[in-house]
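Hey team,

Filing this mostly as a record. A colleague (T.K.) asked me to run one chain through the structure pipeline before their review meeting, and I want the input and output archived in the tracker in case anyone asks later how it was produced. No errors, nothing strange. Just documentation.

Input sequence:
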Amino acid sequence: MHEFLSSNRTNVFETLRNASLMRQSFWDPDKKISLEYRGLELGGESGEAQNKLKKLAREAMGLRGSRSSRAEVAEELADVIIVADLIAGMLNIDLWSEVVKKFNKTSQENDLPVRITSGEV
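Output structure:
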């Protein structure tokens, strides 16, 4: 079995959550942003990431059309993670703990010998 310790990533997720909460206090001081809005935002950011990936695939196939870059894909994927964590925060979900649980569950269900270990999960 291969195990990866998650403690450093947990700190990254905690930092993201804290920074997001601080930024939201400036962005939305009246707390008007709803869960529904965040869900739509997540769909939009996911769609933007998919569109950038499509453009990379188009270029790889030698087809005509607009192009994208790995940097643009990375930026959109970062947006997806940020918004997913904002939603998790609204629902009081520890996203990193859930990622660890889901990763390990999928490994177990598919008889794969890779797990993420953490003292928090």
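Quick notes for T.K.: The CA atoms of residues 38 and 87 lie 6 Å apart. The helical segments are 7-27, 35-60, 70-90, 95-109.
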